[in-house]
């Protein structure tokens, strides 16, 4: 490979409910482009306007989950997907692979999640392994996996890693939590696992002539359909808290229906602003007095990077366990406050707001250089592969 031939990356991501997986992929894509990679991101979720830093985006016919358990997937018209639809999308993904001919194939979360997408990912992986010049095949996975309750699922994940994958990039810091806490077969693939540090969007701007979010309480519920109750509870908590005179800015997820958004705007009392999620969200965190949010990977790491005071209400619906575990680990370090989703009331939330405002800003000695480190590792692995 010459200097004139950038390393080609095909990066697969599928978001089904929220957009956290896509946001982390986008942050990684921006870092890879800055490092000289030729990146194609292929997304199988609903279309979202997101900054990929110059990476090419290929949008597959979208699918999404209809409930918190991800049991039923529907297409863009809300129809349950069938075998014909699956074959169509699997074919499009294989055509894209042949078009890109990547040096690196990255699957976001799979095989540690997104089991529903095996219909297209297994043919893709088989084609990649059978290529005349197989690409480096990498799994890009967050720090904490969803706990598996069905027998054999962890064994299945292990078998897929051993069959198809060269490396596993864990976007976390083992000093906070290592993969073996949520994946019991970690020791079997220890030589394939590499920790990158946390992947953080660092585009936020602190200060300036008119700093956005200055002195405000920023309330966010991620980019998915869940979290409306948190926003409603926060509206009521404002008057009960010591922050009753501050502006409370409610950030409504991009995929929340218009009628829900309109309802929230109608409920907002004086001093509360309700608006759609903004591209400058990280700047809001850099300048705010307090963040109230769910405990998704991206938001929590952006809070730590911004160093703002924070109250986390971990999402624990459906099969989700990772937000609660991450928040509890960080709370033990004294860097944020937790208000549990179950039984949350305005007065409970107001109490946690007051505690957070009296305490120090969020600060933790955690590796958050995951974007740069991921690019470095991928370059190193390609160089080793090419001898």
Give the key terms:
single chain; 387 residues; alpha/beta; Rossmann fold; 6-stranded parallel β-sheet; 11 helices; globular
Secondary structure layout:
Elements: E1 8-13, H1 20-34, E2 38-43, E3 56-59, E4 64-65, E5 73-74, H2 83-100, E6 104-108, H3 118-130, E7 136-142, H4 153-164, E8 167-171, E9 193-195, E10 217-220, H5 228-238, E11 248-252, H6 258-267, E12 272-276, H7 281-287, E13 290-293, H8 297-306, E14 310-312, H9 322-332, E15 337-338, H10 346-358, H11 370-385
Parallel strand pairs: 1-2, 1-6, 2-3, 6-7, 7-8, 8-9, 10-11, 10-13, 11-12, 13-14, 14-15
Antiparallel strand pairs: 4-5
Description:
The protein is α/β, with parallel strands linked by helices and 387 residues long. It has two domains: 8-199 and 368-385, 3-Layer(aba) Sandwich (Rossmann fold); 217-358, Rossmann fold (3-Layer(aba) Sandwich), CATH 3.40.50. It is 35% helix and 16% strand. It has helices at residues 20-34, 83-100, 118-130, 153-164, 228-238, 258-267, 281-287, 297-306, 322-332, 346-358, 370-385; strands spanning 8-13, 38-43, 56-59, 64-65, 73-74, 104-108, 136-142, 167-171, 193-195, 217-220, 248-252, 272-276, 290-293, 310-312, 337-338. The strands form three sheets. The chain has a seven-stranded parallel beta sheet with strand order 3-2-1-6-7-8-9, sandwiched between helices. It has a six-stranded parallel beta sheet with strand order 12-11-10-13-14-15, sandwiched between helices. The chain has a two-stranded antiparallel ribbon with strand order 4-5. The protein is globular and about 65 Å long. The protein starts with 7 loop residues before the first strand and ends with a helix. The mean pLDDT is 92.
């Amino acid at each position: 490979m010459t200097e004139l031939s950038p390393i080609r990356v095909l990066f697969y991501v599928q978001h089904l409910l929220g957009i956290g997986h896509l946001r982390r992929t986008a942050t990684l894509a921006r870092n890879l482009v800055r490092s000289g990679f030729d990146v194609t991101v292929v997304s199988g979720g609903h279309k979202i306007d997101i900054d990929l830093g110059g990476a090419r985006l290929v949008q597959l016919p979208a699918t999404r989950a209809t409930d918190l358990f991800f049991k039923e997937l529907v297409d863009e018209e809300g129809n349950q997907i069938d075998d014909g639809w699956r074959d169509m999308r699997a074919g499009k993904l294989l055509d894209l692979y042949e078009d890109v001919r990547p040096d690196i194939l990255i699957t976001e979360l799979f095989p540690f999640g997104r089991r529903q997408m095996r219909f297209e990912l297994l043919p893709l992986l088989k084609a990649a392994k059978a290529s005349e010049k197989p690409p480096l095949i990498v799994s890009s996975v967050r720090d904490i996996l969803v706990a598996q309750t069905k027998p054999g699922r962890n064994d299945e994940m292990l078998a897929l890693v051993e069959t198809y994958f060269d490396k596993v990039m864990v976007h976390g810091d083992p000093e906070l939590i290592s993969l073996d806490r949520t994946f019991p077969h970690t020791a079997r693939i220890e030589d394939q696992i590499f920790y990158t540090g946390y992947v953080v969007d660092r585009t936020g701007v602190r200060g300036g002539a008119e700093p956005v979010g200055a002195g405000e309480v920023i309330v966010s519920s991620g980019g998915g359909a869940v979290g409306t109750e948190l926003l409603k509870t926060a509206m009521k908590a404002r008057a009960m808290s010591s922050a009753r005179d501050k502006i409370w800015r409610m950030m409504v997820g991009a995929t929340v229906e218009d009628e829900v958004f309109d309802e929230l705007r109608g409920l907002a009392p004086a001093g509360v602003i309700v608006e759609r999620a903004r591209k400058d969200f990280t700047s809001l965190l850099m300048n705010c007095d307090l963040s109230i949010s769910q405990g998704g990977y991206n938001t929590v790491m952006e809070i730590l990077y911004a160093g703002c005071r924070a109250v986390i209400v971990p999402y624990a619906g459906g099969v989700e366990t990772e937000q609660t575990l991450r928040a509890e680990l960080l709370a033990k370090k004294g860097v944020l406050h937790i208000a549990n989703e179950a039984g949350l009331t305005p007065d409970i939330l107001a109490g946690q707001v007051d505690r957070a405002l009296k305490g120090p800003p969020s600060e933790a000695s955690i590796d958050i250089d995951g974007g740069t480190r991921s690019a470095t590792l991928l370059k190193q692995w390609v160089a080793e592969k090419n001898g």
